[in-house]
Design goal:
Strand order of the largest sheet of chain A: 3-4-9-6-8-7
Radius of gyration of chain A: 38 Å
Oligomer: heterodimer
Largest sheet of chain B: 3 strands, antiparallel
Number of helices of chain A: 28
Structural class of chain B: alpha+beta
Shape of chain B: elongated
Helix content of chain A: 40-55%
Number of domains of chain B: 1
Strand content of chain A: 15-25%
Distance between the termini of chain B: 37 Å
Number of strands of chain B: 3
Distance between the termini of chain A: 52 Å
Strand order of the largest sheet of chain B: 1-3-2
CATH architecture of chain B: Orthogonal Bundle
Largest sheet of chain A: 6 strands, mixed, barrel
């Protein structure tokens, strides 16, 4: 039966009863009674029509729905009668639901949603694995062996990417270009949406240069042209024909604007040059473990076959989705945990409010029970109220979450993968609905359980008292608040640990003075491409052209009135530390320098002649600008030029590590594997350490070479650093003009070192900000909750306090009584919270820097803070208690 | 209530079917008819009557229609359906067998055993 028929049937019953009643009335009249007496007699004989209706409806069996509506109606009326309570409860829950929904939207987009490729679970990242377990990118010959010998992959491909200056579509632009091997697109399962993929002829050494562009690049730089035949793009002096456009939304590797075949330039035959990232699609039905074992076997074979020529002995295979997310997973899980705790606190707070309300409504409930409302009926009533509250909170929470999602682009770290997918979509809404339902159910069951526990007759008897809350209610609220304090402490400790780590990180000296530094990252003009690591030939002419251009640039920049100093480096240290290459170098002392790379490999077999360091091209001015101190020896000088002996500076750490008891100055080394120039380097100086790879890593050993002697190779990100006290917006236009004048086709990006560091710190900052925000919210909720409990405590004891004061208690005694109650709860909560934190914060350990998860300072500070807040929250009701007038209190009901 | 018999569970439906089988009746009329045919020994509560009427209609044993009473008033009349008539016969037989069995049981004397 449909609900509209229900209404009709109801009317029908009403009519039937009325007509039957009238018939009876007439019968009575026929017996000679007067009309009034007849009506009364008829009613007496007939019984209570409302009761009959009720009972008949029961028999109809559809009353559950009607009763639920009635319950909802009643709940709404109850809440409208206490708007303050309703508002507080709804906002509290909305905060919890909204925050968890917003965080879920991030987790959903970044962690949970499958990658936008066909059968994404079969796409794997592939690495070589060293004996110590760390993953390395693939070396070209190893990749080829993996590809030829494996039985588990449908396709296996390699790719690499970097910033390139691309000209041909209007202005020269500096964009990410990826070099990808055949089968790269097949592994991902993606095809160009316009044009075609690379032809076989384009995927071989010295083939016809072809390029695929991203949808965005096509729109912005190629005017969305349907006919691509006209378009040619120049990268590093090579002219590529545009053959296709990848579909909208295809973004792998992240941020790539164009893809070129990796086979065009033959790579080195070294088996330890880990230049390529591996990606592949495993066969249908093949497990990751099988694929890993398969490649591992091949790696083991390579190890046996090539011995010292390889540094792998195993392979690593990880689903692409997991590999992309990497470290972010922990951070997001921490956020999710924190927001879950916040939701828990919000629920506990509202539960506390509901208990207070239930005990204030005890009389009403008792009356309803006395009038025949069964326990089930009352339970339904509580459920209905929780349902109405939670639903309203859910709606407001989703609005909150929607706002947060809109703000995310501004606050999310720029390098958070897959963040474009963050939106208020169906899964997010379903999550919000599920959270809302869970909140409604738990609150409803909680209050029902509470009401079930209270003896209604007692309540009715006690109804005369204003505050009928029993000791049990007070105790339960106390337990709730102590629990809230414990949970808040966990969130606070997490925020504290992250905050302390962050402070330590930003106050860690990078090894140089980092203020007032302008950074200019640029690409070399195409005609100045430096010696190529693969070709193995030096290109003195190119280096000379580079050097003269750089000298010119630096001299002009230095001449700016606001410039204090300027210097050049191959990659921005710390913030751009990942761009620094590292590798083995040879210590030649006495040995004949290698004539070619085969010689090089032979010498490298002897560990006595090998060291490991970062490779960094720099100018003399670099050290001056950063104020990196000279420990011993000398800096680069004017005497170092293309024709003189090639010199190197090493960092203090490298000197200590590799030459512990010797003088490194005067040692002759070879780092030709980095730039393709086999000319040996003589160490002439030791300079101070910098944390080149990031503030969170100890200073690494670095070998600096002079840009005038070795040049910037294709892998570098040339950067000029300028120290100036002038504001950024004054100096940048002047510097831009100089660049435009001297190197018009070298795209340049201006920034400050602080801003670049800000980007480097963004992920940590984001995590810290959110956890801190949750901690503040938790603190606010818990203080309100505690205030409520203590206020209730005072109200319940007003009479007792009055008596105490009447018989001579001082205000100080009253204060102690009330604050003591607050302190008792706080101590209880803090103790549990510390134990819980010790267990839970272990999950944070990978996100901390410089402190352990049991950092006593953080724990102590948080415990003190929370206790102070608890006392402050108790103090307000305590003051009210002190002002109690004994005479009034004694009359107080 | 002195003079009133206690209504056994399950017998209300039987009584209603019987009352209606004697001629179409409106709800209150059913009540009066039962009182009348039981010699005022069985009095039915209205609170039990209307739900029972509803139940019997839903089971298809009675039909209900709006009609006009003797004194020209609109009322809802209940009539027995074919299924209702069959059910009445069955229930009545069952009841008579039970009543007979109980009566003979109660009439038993020691020497008969």
């Amino acid at each position: 039966m449909r609900w509209w028929q229900i209404r009709k049937r109801d009317a029908d019953l009403e009519r039937e009863l009325r007509s039957d009643l009238e018939l009876e009335e007439e019968e009575q009249r026929e017996r000679g009674l007067s009309p009034e007496h007849a009506r009364d007699a008829a009613r007496r004989a007939f019984g209570n029509p409302t009761l009959i209706k009720e009972q008949t409806r029961e028999a109809w069996g559809w009353t559950t729905l009607e009763r639920s509506l009635q319950d909802l109606h009643y709940a709404l009326r109850q809440l409208r009668r206490s708007p303050g309570f309703a508002l507080a409860a709804i906002l509290t829950l909305a905060l919890g639901i909204g925050a968890s929904t917003a965080i879920f939207s991030v987790a959903d987009a970044v962690l949970l949603r499958p990658l936008p490729y066909p059968d994404p679970q079969r796409i794997m990242r592939v690495w070589e694995q060293a004996p110590d377990g760390h993953r390395m990118n693939l070396a070209q010959p190893n990749f080829e062996d993996f590809r030829a010998q494996n039985h588990s992959f449908v396709s296996l491909a390699e790719y690499g990417y970097g910033f390139e200056s691309v000209t041909g579509g209007g202005e020269p632009v500096r964009v990410t270009v990826a070099a990808v091997s055949s089968d790269f697109f097949k592994s991902l399962g993606v095809e160009p949406f316009l044009g075609r993929a690379f032809a076989a002829d384009e995927m071989r050494p010295h083939g016809a240069p072809a390029i695929l562009v991203s949808y965005g690049y096509w729109q912005q730089n190629l005017g969305s042209a349907k006919d691509l035949s006209e378009f040619h793009l120049a990268i590093s002096g090579t002219d590529y024909s545009v053959v296709g456009v990848m579909p909208d939304g295809f973004d792998f590797p992240s941020g790539t604007s164009a893809w070129i075949p990796s086979e065009l330039d033959p790579d080195t035959s070294s088996r330890t040059a880990h230049n390529w990232r591996g990606i592949g699609r495993i066969r249908d039905g093949m497990t990751i473990a099988q694929a890993r074992a398969d490649l591992g076997t091949i790696a083991g074979r390579l190890k046996t076959q090539y011995g010292k020529e390889v540094d792998l002995d195993n392979a690593s295979v990880v689903p692409l989705a997991d590999a992309m997310v990497g470290d972010v997973r922990t951070a997001l899980l921490v956020l999710f945990g924190a927001v879950g705790l916040l939701l828990l606190i919000a629920c506990a707070n509202v539960a506390g409010l509901l208990i207070a309300r239930t005990s204030a409504r005890a009389k009403e409930l008792a009356v309803r029970a006395a009038l025949g409302a069964g326990r089930a009926r009352l339970a339904r009533q509580f459920l209905a109220e929780s349902f109405v509250l939670s639903l309203a909170a859910g709606v407001v929470g989703v609005l909150f979450a929607g706002l947060a999602i809109r703000m995310f682009p501004a606050i999310l770290p720029a390098d958070l993968p897959r963040q474009q997918g963050i939106a208020m979509n169906l899964p997010v809404l379903l999550f919000a609905l599920a959270v809302t339902a869970a909140v409604a159910l738990s609150l409803g069951l909680f209050t029902t359980w509470r009401a079930g526990g209270a003896d209604l007759r007692d309540a009715l008897n006690a109804g005369a008292h204003h505050h009928s809350g029993s000791g049990a209610v007070q105790r339960l609220r106390g337990v709730l608040v102590a629990g809230e304090i414990a949970v808040t402490l966990v969130v606070l400790v997490s925020a504290g640990l992250l905050g302390r780590s962050f402070m330590r990180l930003v106050s860690t000296s990078p090894g140089f003075r980092s203020g007032h530094l302008i950074t200019m990252q640029f690409s070399l003009p195409p005609d100045m491409s430096a010696p190529d690591s693969g070709a193995g030939q030096s290109q003195p002419a190119a280096i000379a052209r580079q050097a003269s251009l750089m000298d010119d640039l630096i001299a002009r920049l230095r001449a700016l009135p606001a410039a204090e100093n300027a210097g050049l480096v191959g990659a921005l240290p710390v913030a751009g530390g990942d761009n620094l290459a590292d590798g083995d170098f040879l210590i030649l002392n006495g040995i004949k320098p290698p004539a070619n790379f085969d010689d090089w490999d032979v010498i490298a077999h002897n560990p006595l002649h090998v060291g490991h360091a970062l490779y960094c091209v720099a100018s003399r001015g670099y050290f001056g600008t950063l104020e990196v101190p000279l420990i011993r020896g000398r800096f680069f000088g004017d005497q170092d030029n293309l024709n003189s002996i090639n010199v190197a500076l090493i960092s203090e750490t490298l000197a200590r590590q590799r030459w512990p008891n010797q003088d490194p100055i005067g040692q002759i080394i070879d780092f030709g594997n980095m730039d393709g120039i086999l000319k040996p380097l003589t160490i002439v100086g030791i300079v101070g350490d910098i944390r080149a790879r990031g503030l969170d890593l100890p200073p690494a050993g670095v070998i600096y070479v002079d840009y005038r002697q070795r040049g910037m190779n294709a892998n570098s990100t040339p950067t000029i650093l300028m120290r100036t006290t002038a504001p950024e917006d004054e100096i940048v236009p002047a510097a831009r003009a100089i660049f435009h004048n001297i190197a018009p086709d070298a795209p340049v990006t201006f920034s400050t070192f602080a801003a670049e560091m800000g980007g480097w710190l963004a992920e940590r900052r984001f995590l810290l900000l959110l956890v801190a925000a949750f901690a503040v919210a938790a603190l606010a909720l818990v203080s309100v909750g505690l205030y409520g409990v203590i206020a209730f405590f005072v109200a319940r004891r007003t009479q007792e306090i009055g008596i105490r004061m009447a018989i001579g208690a001082q205000r100080g005694d009253v204060l102690r009584l009330v604050l003591g109650e607050g302190a008792r709860l706080a101590a209880f909560g803090v103790a549990i919270g510390i134990v819980a934190s010790l267990a839970i914060t272990r999950l944070l350990s990978s996100l901390l820097f410089g402190i352990g998860t049991t950092d006593p300072f953080t724990y102590a500070a948080v415990a003190v803070l929370l206790s102070l807040i608890a006392l402050a929250a108790s103090y307000i009701p305590a003051r009210r208690a002190m002002r109690v007038d004994p005479v009034t209190a004694l009359r107080y009901e | 209530m002195p003079g009133h018999a206690q209504l056994l569970p399950g017998t209300l439906d039987l009584l209603i079917l019987k009352a209606v089988s004697l001629g179409p009746l409106h709800g209150y009329g059913v009540l009066l008819r039962i009182g009348q045919i039981s010699g005022q020994a069985l009095l039915i509560e209205q609170g039990a009557l209307y739900p029972a009427l509803f139940r019997l209609v839903r089971q298809g044993l009675l039909t209900a229609r709006w009609g006009t009473s003797d004194n020209n008033r609109r009322a809802k009349f209940y009539e027995l359906t074919a299924a209702g008539r069959k059910r009445l016969r069955k229930e009545a037989d069952g009841w008579n067998r039970l009543a007979g069995a109980i009566a003979s049981a109660l009439a038993a004397r020691p020497e008969e055993i």
